[in-house]
Amino acid sequence: MTGEPLAGGLANAGAVTRHGSVVERPAPPHAPALHAHLNGLRRRGFDGAPTPVCLTADGVRERLTYIPGDVALPPFPHWSMTDDALRSVGTLLRRMHDAARAFPAGEEWSGEFADPSAADAENLVLCHNDVCPENVVFRAGRAAALIDFDMAAPGRPLWDVALTAGYWAPVLDPLSASLHYPPGLDPVHRVTVLADAYGLTPPDRAALPATIEQAVAVCRAFVERRLAAGNEAFVNVHAEKGGWARWDRRQEWLAGRRGEFEAALRR
What we know:
With 267 residues, this protein is an alpha+beta fold. The protein is built from nine helices and nine strands. It has helices at residues 31-43, 83-99, 157-168, 174-177, 187-198, 202-228, 232-240, 243-256, 258-266, and strands at residues 4-5, 17-19, 22-26, 52-55, 61-65, 125-127, 136-139, 142-146, 153-155.
């Protein structure tokens, strides 16, 4: 049975299919631990994530429950980038983190977007690490569920908020943002909207701008690894979006506005 093709992310493009109430997709290496965690989230009252069904016999693919709703794909529609939509993303992420403080210990989680400060931090959660618009399911204009936990790894909640801000503010220079985002978004304002909705503490609000810069550097290193491996999809997208000049421009823009972010988050 072929199933209905779903968009999937860049890494899984063309490899995700829906079969009625079940989605089948490539399984990450840590799928057994991740499935145990997803089941734990539901036991602890978080219903905004897929429920594991099973792994295929060879362990190469996984089956999860399909979550109905709307997912914003680029170019992102205006409804997905309103302040109310962003507040709902922050609230959903906080709910997930509150349920994610217990996770299978001693497992090898993804290192792709993992918090580099996790080893020295306390009160870790299992961060999603990839809360991009394509991985959030909306219903009636509000974020209802997170999907694609492949990049999940232990980290500070602040780290997940910083990565999420990168996608949703977005933390991009105006030229880069114009490729996929509606015009008129104010990233400084939107970072504060996310921080308020999540309920960041004053110390975490103060640390957020520098943590966002650190997260952007980790994302750049991820792209570097994909390009070094010759991943065709990443090579093509990297070239289409302007290559390393785009990343340089983004990081220079972000560093130049740190003071604006810090001032806004102090209010």
